[in-house]
Structures are given as C-alpha cells and as structure tokens.
Amino acid sequence: VIKQKWLETIQSLKDYNHSLAIFLKVGQPLHFDGQTLKVAFKYAFHWERIKEPKNHLKVLEVLTKIFGQPLELVAEIDGNLEVNGYDNNGSVVKPETASQLVNDVLEKFGGEIIE
Length: 115
Hints:
The chain is 52% helix and 18% strand. The protein has five helices and five strands; from the N terminus they run ααββααβββα. The termini are far apart.
C-alpha cells in the first residue's frame, strides 16, 4: 500500500514540479505509522531540496490528498542505501540506472556528492 501511494505521490508531483518528482523517485519509503511517513535517501542533497519550504509544503499537500489525512514527512540519510528509482509504470529501476538518474539530477542542479 505504501509503495503504491508513494508512486501516486511522485506521479501527482510531476504536474507541479517535474524536478521535485525526480528527487522523490530516488527515495525509499521505509515506514508509515498512520501519521508520519519516513523516507530514506542515499544523499542529503535530495532531502535538502525536498524540505525547502515551498517544495515541502507541496509534497505535504499531495501526501494529504493521497493518504486522505495530513502527514508528517521525515527522512533518513543512509549512505549505504542502494539507490533505486521507479519508472513511469511503477517498476523498480535497476541501481545502475538509478545511479545515472542521481548523476543527472546533480548535474542539472549543480549539486555534488559529499561523503
């Protein structure tokens, strides 16, 4: 259920901000307790962009619409996380492809990986 709603969230955000949807694509929902959704990211860069005030508000708005209630979104940064993404059909993208997605996003926005 969480995976499906996560994919709905990503899809809904594409209409608002395609780049924001890309940042969420590389996240992995870890846990949902009914009030808080915890998402893992390999790189802090992704979470930093998502939690920018206007982006964060939009993500929370979409999550509220999809989950049917207001949620809190929290993140865990895990440098050992295998980066997976999702294609437009909801299938998991292989790590090599997901890594390329990360590199494309970093290049587009001028980010860098800091370890």
